[in-house]
Amino acid sequence: MISKIANIFKVKDLRKKIFFTFSLLVVFRLGGQIAIPGVDVSDFEGFGGLLDLYDTFVGSFLSQASIFSLGIMPYISASIIIQLMTAIVPYFQRLKKEGAEGNKKIIQLTRYGTVLIAMVQSIGVATLWQDVVPQDFSTSLFYVVAIVTLVTGTVFVMWLGEQITDYGIGNGISLIITVGILAGLPTAFYDQGQEMSQSTGLAIQGVFLFVILIAIIMFTVYVTTALRKIPVQFAKRVVGRKVYGGQASHIPLKILTAGVMPIIFAQALMFIPGLLGSLTGWSWLESGFMPDSWAYNIVFALMIIVFTYFYTAIAFNPADVAENMQKQGGFIPGVRPGKATSEFIDNILTRVTLPASIALAFIAILPFIFQRYGGVDPSLSYFFGGTSIIIAVGVALDTMQQIEGHLVSRHYDGFLKTGRIKGRSRTKF
Length: 429
Prior knowledge:
Blueprint: H1 2-8, H2 12-31, H3 50-57, H4 73-88, H5 90-97, H6 100-128, H7 139-167, H8 172-183, H9 185-196, H10 202-225, E1 227-234, E2 237-239, E3 242-244, E4 248-254, H11 261-280, H12 283-288, H13 294-315, H14 318-327, E5 330-331, H15 339-373, H16 378-381, H17 386-409
C-alpha cells in the first residue's frame, strides 16, 4: 500500500493536480476564518435545530459569522433547480441536447441562479446576526455590508470549486462540501470524549462507537457502489472479410442511481413545517418537526423513498438506453429490442430502487437514532449517517477513481485489486 501511495507522487501531472487541489482547499479554510464586518460573536449561543445542520455543511462558518457563511450551498440549490428544469422545461431540454454549447449555457445560468439565491439567503443570515451587531454600527449599513460580503464570498467559493474541477483532482464543489463537513469532526469527537469522560467504561464506549462508525461507512460504500448487471449480447456483423460484434457485455445498473440528491431534496422541504409553525405561532407544528422528533424523521424517511424514485426517473432514461443498444446491434437475451427492452430495464430499475431507497432512508435517520438512543453528542451524530456520510463516501470514491485512472494510464499499479493494468515499464515523469 505504501508503494502504491508513493506512485501518486511519481506522476508529475497527478502530483501537480493534488498540490493544486490541496492549496485551494487551504485557501477556502483560511478564508473562512475572516469574519463579517460588524459582527461580534463573543456572546453568541448558537442556532439550534436545522440551522445547526446547515452549519455542518458549510464547515461551521455560519456560527463564526464568516464571509463564507453561505458556503457552496447556494450553488447546490441553483444546480438542483436547473437540473429539475432540464427535465420539465422545453427550453432547458433543448439546451441539454445541444451538447457542449448547451452545457456552457446551463453552467452560466446556474451561476446566475447562485448569485440570486445567495442574495436572498444573505438577507436571512444578516437578520440572524442583527442581534449581535454592536450598537454603534448602523443597521442599514450592516445589511449592505453583510449582503455584499456574503454574496461575494459565495461567488469566490464557487470559483474555487470550478478551478479544482478544471485543474485539480476530483469534483471541486463536492470536495469543498466534504472538507467543510470533516472540519467539524475533531471538535465533535472532543465534545463526545468530554461527555464520555464523566461516565465509566470510557474505553469500551469509544471502541464501540468506532466499530459502529466503520460498519456504517462500509454499509454506505456497499449501497453507493452496488450494481445490478444486465447481460447484453451484440449481434455479429460481417463487413468484407472481417467479423464485428458477437461479444457479450452488460449494463452496469446502479441500485442507487439517485445518489445523495433525494436526501438534499427532502431536507430542503423539511424546513417548511418549522417555518410555517414559527410564522403562524403554532408551536406544536414547530416543535413537532424538529430534527430530534420522531414525526420529523418518519416524514423525512418517507420523502427520501419518494424522491429516490423521482430523481432516478430524471437521471436514468431506459428508453434512451434501449434505443442506443438497438443502434449498436445489442440486445438483452430473451427480450425483444425496442420498447420491450425499455420496459424490461425499467422493471429491474424499479425493483432494485426500492431496497436502495429504504437503505438510504435508514442511513439518513441514523443521526437521530444515535443522538436519541445512543447517547452520542449532536455534533458527532451527524457523522454517523445522513447526508454527511454519503457525501464523504461518494467524494472519496470518486477522487480515488480519478487517481486510479491517472496511475493506470501511466502504467503504475493502482489501488484496485481487480481490473488494474500491471506496469510493464517504469517510465519516469
